[in-house]
Structure prediction request, 532 residues.
Amino acid sequence: MVSVMAPPTRRVAFDLARQSVRELNQFLHGDLNQVQEVLVKNPDGAHSLAVGLNAPVRVDIGGHAGYYAAGMNKLATVVVHGNAGPGVAENMMSGRVEVSGFASGGAGASAHGGLLVIRGDAGLRCGISLKGADIVVGGEVGSFSAFMAQAGRIVICGDAGDGLGDSLYEAVIYLRGRVRSLGADARVEPMAERDHAAVRELLAAAGISHPSSEFKRIASGRTLYHWNADAGQSY
Amino acid sequence: MCGIIGLLLKDGSLRPRLGELLVPMLIGMTERGPDSSGLAVFADAVADNRRKLSLYCAQPGFDWRGFEGAWVGQVGAALFEVNANHCIVTTTADLKSAREWIATQYPAVHVLSAGRSIDLYKDIGLPSEVADRYGFQNFSGTHLVGHTRMATESAVTPENAHPYTAGEDWCLVHNGSLANPGSLRRKLEKLGERFESDCDTEAACRYLHWRLSAGETLEEALEHAFGDFDGFFTFLMGTRDKLALVRDPFACKPAVVAETDAYVAIASEFRSLAHLPGIRHASVFEPKPAEVYSWSV
Prediction:
């Protein structure tokens, strides 16, 4: 009988109390030499942690992150075990970014692909100019979220602030709570079966459970797609 | 840019350690504000008939002893604590006449603050340099308001550094910028407020002070400010027994609050709070836009 053992996971730890963010990011950008997991200790709100990754590595940030954590992420899984500052996962291309606490403003801004999961609340302008990524927020989102979002899906399990989905293009928002106000051209639409399926899929991926029946669909009314001279300066 | 910090100690046993806790907070905001920094420290109030004046003179080697002699001869007995080019004068003299005396006899000396609790320091240089210059490390007190400045709309000078004060035991620091400080200033000058710098923040400080003096609560004054201020701001304000924080309705500028049983700490970013005792178990949150938060000693 031959016993088969999985090869051990190769792990590396960085302690930002002693090492610099540049050392961490240069390591992550280099030849990872089969390292699969990287632990970042004492992040203490440092900026630009694990940005620009381009490999299927897992990075665990053991505390609060500052601005732009996991920005431009590609392929990697980055988990912030704490809160994230402004611009977490901004311009993400693929992979997965997770925040266990709250995320500040501009979370997932301009992200093209991948999944951003925020277990707590997200601040203002979450998913602004979203270009194809998916975002799941366990709590509420601040005002002006999904402003001019072009593609992708945003699932919001809590409430939303003012101006949700202002000037939306083809991104779709699924909102479970209440919205303080919808932005220009954003409208509530009926949930079709594919919308229920999308909510179920994204919640399952995020590990959050709510019935999809509790969500409503918010999408573009497409009235801003064409110039309307009669509208004057109304929008 | 600019960085703000605030700390209010609920646990009295930490008060002698205020300086030791605040210096890393201030230095943590260096990248947000390397030009200048400042600090208002509130401690136990002096007796009701006394007032403290924080004075500043830009001239190196200014003759504070000569100043003291002239003051004692012409204004009256007072206590003088010289710290580099700052001096705290504790006096029973009437504040208005003391200010006039300084303005006429020593026009190079600026009154940074007045009140029963507040001491104020501000100067140009890196936060670490300013902290060293005045020994912030050794300060004690109940609460503080600090600032690191990256100048945007006016020159890098000590008087343009924050905190700004008006009246007594009131100060404000600002991250952001206002587009209409000129019109606010013209309006306030007609109402008798006197300006000492050309910084937009001074207009905000004097505007709020004017409304508070008229009997409004801080909440009412800020409600008016949302209508009258054109621009973006996170303001942190200090009074004899309070810290208050507000962000503009668009939350353009950041702020993070950490609260434990021992303290409330406020900063533009978490990296200025990371060293505080018990921070891992603190309740950390981001203040919502257009909401007024306040904490009392």
Summary: The two ends of chain A are 74 Å apart (CA to CA). Chain A has a mean pLDDT of 95.
